[in-house]
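Problem statement: downstream parser choked on a complex file, so we are re-checking the raw output for the zinc ion run. The parser issue turned out to be on our end (a line-ending mismatch), but while we're here, posting the original submission so the record is complete.
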Amino acid sequence: MRPLVWMGVILSCAGVMGLLWNQPRRSALQARIVKTEAEWKALLTPEQYRVTRKKGTERAFTGHCWDTKEAGQYRCVCCDNLLFDAGTKFDSGTGWPSFFQPVSEESVATESDWSFFMRRTEVVCKQCLAHLGHVFEDGPAPTGLRYCMNAAALRFIPATKAGAVDEKIPDPTP
Ligand SMILES: [Zn+2]
């Protein structure tokens, strides 16, 4: 019977490990802008909601700005936080808008992402923790980083319109 007992112990351990593995990991990051799921749903399109609040990924070459080369700003579609400047955008060939550097310390935060059995670094908006994409260490100079973003998480403000009042900008104060 002994081997059976051991088998039971091993299977139990595997079960517990499996449960732990599938638990959503608690984030150490604190959102400064907090809304309920219903509020986010009301604010966003279904695709924007799926990507930013449910950590989805849009299909490559489908986002509105993957190939945009115009000067301007890229802001968080959820909270309007300034994330990237078009001057740091480059053609990564991936079909997702890619940048080598965020605008400031206040733009994005990163976290380890172990989904799909891969260790990747997730990039989120520092203000509202919207999922933006991932960062990889195969980008161009000067940083060597590639912020691979979902266009659905970004709102592009062409330089010609920067400073103009956009009525659709959500009020960041809860
Ligand atoms: Zn945000």
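For whoever reads this later: DSSP finds three helices and nine strands in the chain.
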